[in-house]
Amino acid sequence: MTGTKSANPFWDFSLAVYGRPGVPACCLALQDRRGVDVNVLLFAAWAGLECGVRLSAGDLARIDGAVSGWREEMVRPLRALRRRAKAEDDTLYRRMKAAELEAERVQQDRLFAAGGFLPQPGGSVALAAANMALLVPGGDPALEELVGVLG
Q1: 88 class by beta-carbon count within 10 Å (0-12 exposed, 13-18 middle, 19+ buried)
Q2: Are the C-beta atoms of residues 71 and 139 closer than 8 Å to each other?
Q3: Cβ burial, residue 45 (10 Å; 0-12/13-18/19+)
Q4: The whole model's pTM is what?
Q5: Tens of pLDDT along 20-65?
Q6: What is the C-alpha to C-alpha distance for residues 75 and 104, in angstroms, rounded to an integer?
Q7: For residues 123 and 45, what is the distance between their CA atoms, to the nearest angstrom?
């Protein structure tokens, strides 16, 4: 995406945050080690930072439920295909990477709609950290590092 804003402020937030040094590594560590959905993790951060919303476990379960089928049937299979293609065919790898990114954008549109939040004053790193902690019971060094990068 170029410098233009989309109709989804959560997507814009995710692109900006994921572009920060250290964020991709933290997110992927949480995904691979703890099974965390990076899009839901970013949604939790966005809700706290940009919307001033403190999510409950029930809120996250409801929001995650709105995208779980899409994640299981589209995003994860595309990710698996991309990872397999990486070592075998660069052209296919790049196409699968683009397809996976588009599937994640659709998932983020669904998360944005399910949450029903809009950016407003009052957000904080503390709210984002509390929201993300719901997804990583017991904590994790990668989560601590991610919170530090967000601050």
Answers
A1: exposed
A2: no
A3: buried
A4: 0.93
A5: 999 999 999 999 999 999 999 999 999 999 999 999 999 999 999 9
A6: 7
A7: 10
